[in-house]
Amino acid sequence: MTVSDLSSAFPPFGLTIRAGSLTLRPITDEVLARLIQVAAAGVHDPERMPFYYPWTDAAADRLPTEFAQYHWGTRARWSRSAWTLEFAVEDDGVIVGTQAFSTQDYLVTRSGETGSWLGLQYQGRGIGTRMRQAVCAFVFDHLDAEEIVSGAFTDNPASLAVSRKVGYRTNGTKRVARRDALAVDQRLVLTPDDFVRGDPIEVTGLDAFRSFIGLP
């Protein structure tokens, strides 16, 4: 095999999804530096915690390092049995946040979980709904998924509203610890029949990625 660029060695780097003004692009190190700036400018009210892992609680001088280490680690741990596909989201060329799809044993389960965040200044514009629709369309239409799951704390109405708009149904709750206090995680599930589509998507790098994860 001839390795002409990093996407030859790591096909997720060659995968891009376009939907209207949005582009979901690979998180290369150059893009990672831009994402750190967005995250450092704020993702949510510090009094609230919307994430299962409270990564935004990191001290300001530690957040860039921990953020980069997380993304490097996600690449390093990739295997066909467990992987996380993460995109930087651009709106009209401006990096605004990330959209991810994580799974285990995908070739058997055909299921995985979405997760995302947006910089504070980009929230409330409908971007969160559109980027979720884009990644769900990609997973259903191009990766042969049969369901997609997600979740949000019951005191995170914005995330739950996005899920409703996209067509997710409630799927039970889970009691978890958050900042050493009880929180209730609302579980959600989406099927192709319930999916509410957004802008049509265009995908590049698909064939190499399907082969990489073991799809024919």
Write the layout of secondary structure elements.
Elements: H1 6-9, E1 16-19, E2 22-26, H2 29-40, H3 63-76, E3 82-91, E4 94-104, H4 106-109, E5 111-118, H5 127-142, E6 147-153, H6 157-166, E7 169-178, E8 181-190, E9 201-204, H7 206-213
Parallel strand pairs: 5-6
Antiparallel strand pairs: 1-2, 1-9, 2-3, 3-4, 4-5, 6-8, 7-8
Helix pairs in contact: 2-3, 5-6
What does this structure look like?
It is a single chain. This protein has 216 residues and is an alpha+beta fold. It has seven helices and nine strands. A nine-stranded mixed β-sheet has the order 7-8-6-5-4-3-2-1-9, sandwiched between helices. A hairpin with a 2-residue loop joins strand 7 and strand 8. It starts with 5 loop residues before the first helix and ends with a helix.
Total strands: 9
User: Percent of residues in beta strands?
Assistant: 25-35%
Strand order, largest beta sheet: 7-8-6-5-4-3-2-1-9
Helix amount: 25-40%
Order of helices and strands: HEEHHEEHEHEHEEEH
Largest sheet, strands/sense/barrel: 9 strands, mixed
Show unreliable segments. Answer: none
Question: Given the C-alpha coordinates, what overall shape results?
Answer: globular
- Terminal-residue CA separation: 19 Å
What is the C-alpha radius of gyration, as a whole number of Å? Answer: 17 Å
Total helical elements: 7
The chain-level mean pLDDT equals: 95
Structural class: alpha+beta
Keywords:
alpha+beta, 9 strands, globular, 7 helices, 9-stranded mixed sheet, 216 residues, single chain
Can you summarize this structure?
By secondary structure, the protein is α+β, with helices and mostly antiparallel strands. The chain has helices at residues 6-9, 29-40, 63-76, 106-109, 127-142, 157-166, 206-213; strands spanning 16-19, 22-26, 82-91, 94-104, 111-118, 147-153, 169-178, 181-190, 201-204.
